[in-house]
Amino acid sequence: MADFTPTEYKLSCVATGREFEDEGWSLDDPQCKTPSLIRAVYAKKQLEVKDDGCGMYKFRDWLPMKRMLKCTSSPITYKSEGLAKALGLENLYITFNGYWPEKGANMPTCSFKETEAYSVCARTSADCDKVLVVASAGNTARAFAKVCSDNNIKLLLSVPEDNVDTLWFDAPLNDCVKLIVSEKGGDYFDAIHLSNLALKSPKFYAEGGAKNIARRDGMATTVLSAVTTIGRIPDYYFQAVGSGTGAIAAWEANMRLIEDGRYGNNLMKLMVSQNAPFLPMYDAWRVDSREMLPYDEYKARRDVEIINAKVLSNRKPPYGIAGGLYDALKATGGTVLMATNLQAQKARKLFLETEGIDIYSAPSIALATLIKELAAGNIDRKAVIMLNVTGGGEEHFRKGKSIWNLKPSYVFPLNPDVDDVIAKVETLF
């Protein structure tokens, strides 16, 4: 867009409150002595929602953007009728991230990870000659691959080999996107380790994960969609979490919306969930520990094999860091919940029957915990509830289409040699 002006903002360290300028790709405060997230402090305190034709960039007042990219999509929010009636709820709002064009949802990767990718890549400079590196359990990789391919941004993906079937597309990708994997039996943590070895080469730079303000503020557009649709901040926010970054983003958006002044001053309770038996954050929260509890590596990998929602399998989440999920839950009076594969499957079936669209295993976990909380009498049925459906519509999207899968350029062992990794990835670009 020719008349686009980069967003005005400063950065703030959560631990110290120090404000400083963004040097282009700042992921933390160099003066801070303790682990801490940083946040964007936007010049515009009241959100001016732009035209729907801008996709998720209609929320660009609160996105740290240097440029606009093509092919944007956006979360959509609507008041539930079918599911709400089945659950006996008066004010259930569904924020749907995926492919459901009949509702106005047009995410071709069918996941809210597109909100991250479009925001992060809009924070990059058009003249950057280095290669962006993203580690993922699957959905994030698919979203970044699609966005980078469409916008000719060089990208190296690192994914567990067991999850490569998530890298599907309706057309071949641009050659600027490459994939490396950690061999079968590995998990998201192994993919992160592999990406960190690649980053030892000066040709590459890290996307940054939860530390990247663009990732969190992109995910926050789910809440901006909900609140600007509902007209007020919800009482409850339900979402399944792997890293918890989406929930942290929801809390940050909530605080900005309070400062906006037009949507109320309540903090919505963050009701986040994990897929049993993979429950590292659930276990830590149950004993009120800011630090993650010890988790045997063998047991962790075995638990990941069991769960259906593989995208919820982060062993090293931004949980205890200043401004992380622990702080978000404490601030909002939220909690960590859990559901089993079977409970999620039942919830998924209910959603399809009552709302008419397929959803992924992760949002099915979130819905299952909402059902359990209602059954336990823990939630007022008149409360305004936001259910963040973080992915759906894949079955709908695939109908009548030929599907193309991204193949790995290299498969590395779980304990790869750093020099071997660097030598091989440098030849890819």
Short synopsis of the structure:
By secondary structure, this protein is of the alpha/beta class. The protein is 33% helix and 18% strand.
Q: How would you describe the overall organization of this protein?
A:
Helix 11 crosses helix 12 (361-375). The two termini are 28 Å apart. The chain contains 14 helices and 18 strands. The protein folds into 2 domains: 76-110 and 214-397, Rossmann fold (3-Layer(aba) Sandwich), CATH 3.40.50; 131-202 and 402-429, Rossmann fold (3-Layer(aba) Sandwich), CATH 3.40.50.1100. It has helices at residues 82-87, 113-123, 139-151, 188-198, 213-219, 221-230, 245-260, 280-286, 297-306, 325-332, 341-355, 361-375, 394-398, 418-426; strands spanning 9-13, 19-20, 38-42, 76-79, 91-96, 99-100, 105-106, 131-135, 155-160, 168-169, 177-182, 204-206, 236-240, 269-275, 335-339, 384-389, 404-405, 410-412. 33% of the residues lie in helices and 18% in strands. Strand 8, helix 3 (139-151) and strand 9 (155-160) form a beta-alpha-beta unit. The model has no long low-confidence stretch (mean pLDDT 96). By secondary structure, it is of the alpha/beta class. It has a 6-stranded mixed sheet, with helices on both faces. The chain has a 5-stranded parallel sheet with strand order 12-8-9-11-18, sandwiched between helices.
